[in-house]
Records
---
Amino acid sequence: MSKHFTLHKKQRLKSHKKIEKLFNSGLRFGVAPFRVVYQLEATTGLQMGVTVPSKIFKKAVDRNRVKRLTREAYRLQCKPLQNLLAQQQKGLSVFFIYTDKQLPDWELVRNKMPVILNKLMQIVNEAVVTNIK
RNA sequence: ACUACCAGCCGAACUAUCGUCUUGUUAGCAAUAACAGGAAGGAAAGUCUGGACAGCACAGGGCAAUACACCGGUGAAUAGCCGGGUGGUGCCAAGCACCAACAGAAAGUGCCACAGAAAAUAACUGCCCCGCGCAAGCAGGGUGAGGGUGAAAAUGUGAGGUAAGAGCUCACAGCAGGUAUAAGUAAUUAUGCCAGCGGGUAAACCUUGUAUGCUGAAAUGCCACGUAUACCAGCGCCUGAAGACGGCCCGUCUGAUGCUGGAGGGUAGGCAGAUUGAUUUUGCAAAGUAAUUUGCAAAACAGAUAAAUGAUAGUUUAGAAACAGAAUCCGGCUUAUGAGCUGGUAGUUUUU
RNA sequence: GGUCCUGUGGCCGAGUGGCUAGGCAGAGCUCUGCAAAAGCUCGUACAGCGGUUCGAAUCCGCUCGGGACCU
């Protein structure tokens, strides 16, 4: 296990095409201030993206703030999910959409992120089980 | 001294751990790794403006549309900036401060509610003369601002003049026009003469002058991948469909495996554009009232492409602060802005 | 990133520069034994600030909000 909690280009969703596909056919669930869109991929690796609607936060500074906090929380806590996917030889695309009207603080985002990640791990496990059956 | 407002300056610093983008070097086939360096603003914002740059066009003419509008300077350019003029407002005045979308109402058209006789042509009422009539009044003629209003009433005051009156005449004052002289680069100012005095509104239409080809980096060029030069409908193939001059018309040019529409298929990756340029800041010197320009020296300048500056802990300051996040790049304008500092204005209190 | 449109009571919506219509909703009154229906009456309405004008919802400038289009 690496000592770095990295989050560079390869681990973010960069392709317009993939994002279109994710939003068209991906599955969704909601956790408190976030909505999560996810889809299992054939290729290995975990990719993520964040978006904040400009209708809710009119100022670019606020949108950047939310995105940074979300990315930071994800970066520090995504290791278990990554390891699980590596074990199962699976890929996953995740997209976070912030939907609350209040500007969040660091505590809130940090506490909510594990909830989402645990749920995702559960989903991955179930998918593997059904495939085996 | 405090408070409020206005203008300007400034736009926290340091350490540790983890992390993002990028440049260079080294290693590696590559993925990547290591080391060194760089990484938001005064407004990056609004998109209100002026350009650079790129593509298409570049025989021309007319109409339309839009913008601007005192003069000179500045600058790549502007609706910016600087200086001057004129006008307005404030202070008793000199003078000072602030403000001005500041061409034309004597080219034409429109509009001016309510009130008022009347909102610009006149009419009504009034005044005067003559005639008729006992009188009220009637008929004819003269006259033009006396008529309570209104934001605005035919330039104002005084005198002459007259039957009554009237810039009808005169004096003083005001207004705008022409012309001459003087000052000034000019706007304009001063004085004289001539002929006048028919409200306001052009941020109503408009007129005059000046400027503007259109589209914006999601422009544009190249490479790679891939498909359908197929199908349907219409028009046309030299008796001319359509396109270009991108608002329209004339006119000119191009023009045939073509053009338009429908349904459908494919791609949506990479490189360039693209970050050092009319650059910014500081210091010194020179020119200029100033904006600004020139020379020398030094320093600085991000470059992403679902889009990068963050998180945690601690310290200092003052409470771990306001407005706020680059997306082609520059000039200006406008708007937002905490604490502190500087200057100005107003108020309150204290002392002299 | 760029180009446009728009803002009138709680809601919808008309409005040549001269007192801001109308409908729905709400409140009160009349009618009724009680309601409904009907009738009458009522209210901080022109997004904000500044300018032009005698006078601005309207014209002009700036700001704020809402919406659409190009891609």
Note: Chain A has a mean pLDDT of 79.
---
Amino acid sequence: MDRAPTIKDVAELAKVHAATASRALNPATRSMVTARTANRVLEAARTLGYAPNSAARSLRTRTSLVAGVIIPDLRNPMFPPIVRGIEDGLRAGGYMALLGNTDGDPARERELLDAMRGRQTDGFILATSRRDSVAMEEGGRPVPTVLVNRRTDAADVPSVTADNAVGIHALVRLLVAAGHTRIAHLAGPQDLSTGWERRRAFGDAMSEHGLSAERIVTCAGFTTEAGLEGTLTLLDTTPGTTAIVAGNDLIALGCYEALVDRGVRCPEDISVTGFNDIPFPGRQQPALTTVRIPHYEIGLEAARLLLERIGNPEAPAKRVVLPVEVVERDSIAPAH
Amino acid sequence: MDRAPTIKDVAELAKVHAATASRALNPATRSMVTARTANRVLEAARTLGYAPNSAARSLRTRTSLVAGVIIPDLRNPMFPPIVRGIEDGLRAGGYMALLGNTDGDPARERELLDAMRGRQTDGFILATSRRDSVAMEEGGRPVPTVLVNRRTDAADVPSVTADNAVGIHALVRLLVAAGHTRIAHLAGPQDLSTGWERRRAFGDAMSEHGLSAERIVTCAGFTTEAGLEGTLTLLDTTPGTTAIVAGNDLIALGCYEALVDRGVRCPEDISVTGFNDIPFPGRQQPALTTVRIPHYEIGLEAARLLLERIGNPEAPAKRVVLPVEVVERDSIAPAH
DNA sequence: TTGTAAGCGTTATCAA
DNA sequence: TTGATAACGCTTACAA
């Protein structure tokens, strides 16, 4: 045998027709066949080491058992555990993941999406959506899609996100308990749900404590550089700030740098908090108080949702929100 | 149009036969067609938003433009940059990556390999090979495969690895320059090329400096736990050790823990070095002197090699070794 | 240069 | 319950 065995080879060995072999091989149709022939076919398949040709199957059934997973950059420590969760979740349904990075470039995202659809991908898990992104469709039918970590304003696409509001409320509570009142927020980009929800939650949390949320600077991105810039602006425009709630851990890191530049001590002069609890390259000084989000579980749940969605594309879109947990470290000190 | 456009739709719109459309669409065969018709077809394809059905193409051509990438665990910080490099390298050849994690389980690896082969994967990039792993074949023909980071003893499979020998030599030179002579090695598993090559290089480097490499303990794995265990054994069996060359960064981290347990100070009492320069979760104390390997480039080069291999499976197997760089931090002190 | 036709391996429909 | 047959969309001899 110098080529992979086909279902015809199996059928021949089992002395049945290819169609019968197909029925015997597929668990869903196995009941259409007598147990005896089913066994003969299975046995033949085993001895030949038969594996179905998925290209042929895809062509015929119009499904591929492959899902596209699109993220900004795998090197962002947010994503490896999420992607791992996705992979494990997909595996449970016999699916595999086709992975693509966009570096945040919408054009690149389009390309990837097109290329993956051309490859008969059955659905997508996207970590790249913006608040105004719209649901994909193909010939009037929605393409099964699940958003992960970020979501759109429109509620028509299923999503799995962390509980941003609860996380921010907990951080603000911690700061208030430490005596802070002049608390600022380094917001993330407002076209991303994460940036927007956290900013909104910050406003809500402040008013709950009878404080006004006026010390807000919006950063250009969820990056260290943007965090540095944002902090400098913040220090220049809102004197008296004693605590900063950063939009995420990277912004908090940039904040650390800016504080050092300006000779401001953390946490003695200004307390700082992050969000996400990503593993840091190298040392953080001081260790950052932040909100841990369940990265792996977010991915796992997203995969489950996608499998559901593929099974029933018309079902209402679930929006799953997973609980978070505050991790107290050394970046908060009592207000002076 | 309630279904994706096929090449027939394109042909119809361009008023040519499907075969002609196919020739016009494929850059390799475009010269068989007049420029005028080629343009008409391309134009028609664009207006319809045509994307070729890859299942049909795969079925016909027996290639899928998909490569399988198999790693132990994406959450190991070694792998994200490697995988990202792979993806970028594959993209250059129009390929995409199907990703799978094995958690180091050979059975799981077999499953993945089979599942991916069933999906017509054109080749594999494996980060999971052991020294005694054998080249895969299918019907007598080798399955195009490239090994990353680890390789087999047999030289018949292409691989891309970091220069383990140079890295270890540089570390030993650093320690010797700091006055150390009683230098120990916490070796990684000897069935992995990384563990074996580093151990061998340690022996060579020591003799080059006229020192004997007798203080060696082999750890059960490249993990923090194994590093802790190994260090305890080392301290118990080889008194007088003033420096430890750990098999990788995780082993070094375990070493740190063991030293703290035993009340030994690092680097004052014992100097420690790592390998890989992975981004650490949280803080390391003291910052680890280690060898940085070019993760991204390793992945990129592996992808290039795979594309070459797919193009010409019979060509001799290249074994690419990429240069490394020592990163001096705070975990080495002068010998007392 | 273009059209015709066959076939890749599977599964769904229809008939026996 | 099983077999025959057609079709999925594409590429490639071969013929025109």
Note: DSSP finds eleven helices and 14 strands in chain A.
